[in-house]
């Protein structure tokens, strides 16, 4: 490590030490914690999955299962083609263990991890059930950051019993790439003077804030890696992508000044899932939306969020994104309604080929109160009468707003 020369009192970038933690194949690791015989075995955790059935989608797969081509958001049927179930083929050495999602349990494990992180960081930004940023500037120094990161991993492992990957860098965006760089059980420290070199070969699609659509646009401009992006003409990027273009340019240069701040309330909650290629089987599309609707409603309940708008996203080939939303007269927390409304909105796409679907609730309300504004909504028994507005937020121009996830994932991010 090279000590940055700086004037006394002058704030320098290298003064910040950001640590990013992302648990390895988190749901599968949780299953292994309570069922140690699953250690070292291929494990698949399915959302909407029921033992013995072929319904649902892969929430995550252990690294052993990934070797067989099983990946997040794959339909369970497709996963079973790659990796049969041990329960069906006990003598097959190339079979794996399938388990349904048990979110309560994973949330418990996640909370225990977060408790440790709050002890170890000056500030903590929780990103999801298995991921957080810590500002550890005052807890460590660059020449011992490696040992500090190891300590974080060991405490999680010893006290909670699940594996984590950790990245350390002077900014959030690079720290996240660093934690992902050597998964599973990764530990990567990128010191301030190594940032540009570390980022250079990274695929643009892996830079935070670049979804599959934007990555394609960048490739069309001849920008394949973060290094290409860092040396691109910033004016050309802003011409093409607006302010966002400048942010991405900065991120690719390691100039991400976002402080590690505790997270505020989300504006919306969503889940999405891609099919392998596109499907013409509309029943499959309906089933997938039903699974996502249930997951989103459940997440809202857990977060004590009431919602006033329920929406779907449908991506048709090649990358046309259609969003439809419906607003209700008042905020609700009603899984059945999310299911009804999303299926209703989906009807318009019957007969179309579909690559990807998403469900979102928005216009969130976190105030603790009764669902008082439902009158005239449930009382006449016809939800349709109570709906005040049918959003026509179509955006079929092939652009995906704010897409930060890789294609083929059930996103943990909001899709708008
Ligand atoms: P991730 O951190 O993205 O994935 P992971 O922890 O399973 O694997 P990795 O080692 O690559 O970090 O997500 C955390 C959990 O969120 C994951 O265990 C299950 C859930 N999830 C879904 O339900 N759907 C998805 O598409 C993804 C990516 C995750
Ligand atoms: Mg993870």
Protein architecture, described:
By secondary structure, the protein is of the alpha+beta class. It is 33% helix and 21% strand. The chain is built from 14 helices and 13 strands. It has helices spanning 26-34, 63-66, 76-82, 103-120, 145-160, 172-181, 195-199, 212-220, 226-230, 234-241, 243-252, 282-302, 335-346, 383-386, and strands spanning 18-23, 43-47, 57-61, 97-100, 123-128, 131-135, 164-169, 187-189, 268-279, 307-316, 320-332, 354-362, 389-391. The chain has a 5-stranded mixed beta sheet with strand order 5-6-1-7-8. The protein has a 5-stranded antiparallel beta sheet with strand order 9-12-10-11-13, with helices on one face. Strands 3-2-4 form a 3-stranded mixed beta sheet, with helices on both faces. Strand 10 (307-316) and strand 11 form a beta hairpin. Helix 10 (234-241) crosses helix 11 (243-252). Residues 1-7 and 369-416 have low confidence and may be disordered. Bound molecules: thymidine-5'-triphosphate and magnesium ion. Thymidine-5'-triphosphate binds at residues 22-27, 47, 59-60, 72-73, 129-131, 183-184, 409-410, 412. Magnesium ion (MG) binds next to strand 1.
In short:
The protein is α+β, with helices and mostly antiparallel strands.
Q: What class would the helix/strand composition place it in?
A: alpha+beta
- Give the beta-strand count: 13
Query: Helix proportion of residues, in percent?
Result: 25-40%
Based on CA inertia axes, which overall geometry fits?
globular
| Major sheet summary line | 5 strands, mixed
Q: So how many helices?
A: 14
Strand order of the largest sheet: 5-6-1-7-8
Average predicted local confidence, pLDDT:
85
Q: For the record, give the distance between the C-alpha atoms at the N and C termini, rounded to a whole number.
A: 40 Å
């Amino acid at each position: 490590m090279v000590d940055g020369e700086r004037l006394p009192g002058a704030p320098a970038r290298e003064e910040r030490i950001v640590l990013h933690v992302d648990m390895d194949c988190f749901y599968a690791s949780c299953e292994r914690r309570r069922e140690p015989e699953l250690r070292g075995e291929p494990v698949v955790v399915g959302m909407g999955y029921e033992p013995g059935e072929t319904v649902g989608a892969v929430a995550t797969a252990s690294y052993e299962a990934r070797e067989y081509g099983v990946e997040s958001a794959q339909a369970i049927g497709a996963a079973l083609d790659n990796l049969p179930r041990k329960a069906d083929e006990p003598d097959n050495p190339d079979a794996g263990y399938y388990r349904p999602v048990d979110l309560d349990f994973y949330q418990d494990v996640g909370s225990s991890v977060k408790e440790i992180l709050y002890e170890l960081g000056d500030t903590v930004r929780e990103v999801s059930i298995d991921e957080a940023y810590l500002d550890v500037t005052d807890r460590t120094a660059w020449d011992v950051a490696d040992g500090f990161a190891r300590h974080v991993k060991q405490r999680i492992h010893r006290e909670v019993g699940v594996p984590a990957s950790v990245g350390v860098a002077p900014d959030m965006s690079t720290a996240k790439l660093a934690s992902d760089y050597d998964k599973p059980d990764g530990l990567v420290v990128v010191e301030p003077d190594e940032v540009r070199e570390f980022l250079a070969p990274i695929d643009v699609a892996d830079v935070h804030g670049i979804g599959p659509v934007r990555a394609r646009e960048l490739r069309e401009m001849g920008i394949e890696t973060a290094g290409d992006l860092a040396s691109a003409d910033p004016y050309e990027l802003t011409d093409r992508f607006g302010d966002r273009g400048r942010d991405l340019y900065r991120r690719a240069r390691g100039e991400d000044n976002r402080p590690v701040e505790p997270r505020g309330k989300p504006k919306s909650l969503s889940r999405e899932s891609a099919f392998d290629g596109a499907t013409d089987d509309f029943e499959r599309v309906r089933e997938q939306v039903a699974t996502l609707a249930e997951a989103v409603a459940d997440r809202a309940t857990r977060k004590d969020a009431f919602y006033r708008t329920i929406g779907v996203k449908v991506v048709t080939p090649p990358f046309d994104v259609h969003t439809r939303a419906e607003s209700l007269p008042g905020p609700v927390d009603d899984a059945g309604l999310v299911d009804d409304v999303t299926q209703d909105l989906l009807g318009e796409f019957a007969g179309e080929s579909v690559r990807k679907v998403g469900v979102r609730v928005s216009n969130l309300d976190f105030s603790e109160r009764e669902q008082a504004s439902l009158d005239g909504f449930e009382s006449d028994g016809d939800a349709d009468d109570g709906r005040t507005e049918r959003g026509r937020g179509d955006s079929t121009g092939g652009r995906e707003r704010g897409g930060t996830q890789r294609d083929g994932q059930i996103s943990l991010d909001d899709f708008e």
